[in-house]
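Dear colleague,

Following up on Tuesday's group meeting, I ran the structure prediction for the two-component complex that the binding team flagged. I've pasted the input sequences exactly as they went in, so you can double-check that nothing got truncated or mislabelled along the way. The structure tokens for the whole assembly follow below. Feel free to forward this to whoever is handling the docking comparison.

Inputs:
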Amino acid sequence: MYKFFMVYKYLLNRPINLLGMIGVLIATWALIFVPSIFSGYIVKIEHHVRSTVADLSLILRGGSRPLSFSKVAKQLQEDKDVESLSPRLSWYGMLIPAKENAETVSASDQDFFQLIGIDDELEKGRFASWLRAVKDPQLQAPLSKPFEHKENAPPKILLGVDKAKELGLKRGDTLVLTTGFRDDSEADENVQSIVIEFELGGCFSSEHFAFDEYSAFVSIQDLRNILRGSAPPGLDRFNEIDIHARKGADLDLLSDRLNALLRDRNIPGIVVTWKKRQERFLESVEHQRFLLQLVLAALMVVAGFLIFATLSMMVSEKTKDIGILSALGATRKGLLSIFLFSGLSVAITGFFLGLLGAWISCKNLNAVNDFLADRFSLNLFPKDVYGLKVIPYAIDPLWVAQVGLGAMVLAGLFSLFPAWRAARLDPIQSMRSE
Amino acid sequence: MTALLKAEGIHKSYRAGTRELPVLRGIDIELFAGEIVALVGASGAGKSTLLHVLGLLDRPSKGRVYYRDIPVSELPPAKQARIRHREIGFVFQFYHLIAELTALQNVCLGAMMLDSLPQYLGKRKQVRARASQLLDDMGLGDRLKHRPSQLSGGERQRVAIARALISEPSIILADEPTGNLDSHTAEEILDLIWRINENDGVSFLIVTHNEQVAARADRTIRLRDGLVVPPMPTQEAGV
């Protein structure tokens, strides 16, 4: 009992111990608050990325002969975990607004786009939800048959809503696509240039800022016609297939099975899960978070040194008390415990206050950030980096536990030497000290 | 009659560089239950060293200390700490109270040493009541919440005596308990010691320079150059 009593009294009567506690508090706050914002970004980005790609994608190898979607789909649907499939034909090109439509056209407006040809009837409602997300009536596309157009009219194209606003476009405006095409099935290896007009049929919003910025949707049939080359008429060609798995299916296992099927049937493509497809991007963000955690962990080591310094001072100041406690019957183990518990108590208090501080900081993050931006033009956490409307955060309980454990282990290690020194003091010499 | 505390052939020497400095050179003494013994001698005679060896705060270089015939000087440190807490009380010349604690807390501290947190919490009220009673008996009933820095020398020594008494020891080893007090206060402290001895039967071994204290004790042991001076025939007869 005397150990806890003495720890309590010493900590209460020695404000210098606040130093170690403040050190742990700051380190805990930084280690939880900053990575929580990063985790929030990761969760949000994963969600955004996830919303733009299917569970799995079949990607045809470059240079492959054109294949029929219906034939390949039939084979893929042999797997019981494949729920639905939709074809995609992706191409790249430069899109510029036709001059008379654009409010301003400059070199920077000639963006490189990924043109994605889709069959909106096979898109299983996801695409419709992206169309519904657009609130501006001048940019809204019809939810049903958004690509429908008269026979001699230019084909319809859908842009990301922010991009369309940036270019000053409205529904019905004309855009010019410039691209190149080489017919793989022909002996002629020359690239043909294609320049074709599109009419803006409306806009979409997927929440994934980077995706919306550089993607444009067209009807897969229109794109097939543009890129037909020498392929047989009526071929439902594709270069990607979005594969939607049944609920609860193991995507990695399904991907393995489908790849085996592709090998068996000599289909020149590969099936990847959505996560694998975005692996590099997600890993790079996670790596940044890891580096940040590593740098911030140095703060905890500094806090450990503060605990060491204040406890060493305490042992020197309380040498006489150590002799008195020995005379009253304290053992060496008991004396060691007093100083060890002191260090740990400082760390525990600092950790919980730091945790509370981090939680409050996360809760008020957006308000404080907006205030700083408005009042001092200080944008600590720019929302537009990842195209987010609010700064997200996600406090990971496992990481909080790791920070807590780390703080305790460090405090224990840094308290051990002063505590051991206290326990080794000769009680008689201690009582004589002034 | 069995001795409460017995020293047998106690030697204690300290190393000063390469030299060995003998302080105690074969001490044989016995202390019996209920008696007050004065330990006198010139400075450097080894009085305090003997007190520390008898109180198990220091180990003898040679010889043994017995408590009720148990050779306690050879026990492991943790067991010695337990005996020190349960059976032996200490009172020092400079009081040695803990500055952060009130008078009451300093006394209660003496009762906390062997208890775990739940054990102590279970008997906390009784301990506080007993500590308050002890301090009240010593005329400090109105000073319970004062810290040592707010107490006079005599009051601090009374708190130290109360702290020694809280664990109900059989013997109290007092190292110059009046050495830092004026004569009037010293007299009060001695009266207190004799009263405790008379009422509770607690034995005292008092290290002192003061011949008047020695004259008041039941017995006097004189140390010179680390040895016990044989008693004079008149002393032996108690005259």
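Chain A is about 50% helix and 15% strand.

Cheers,
M.
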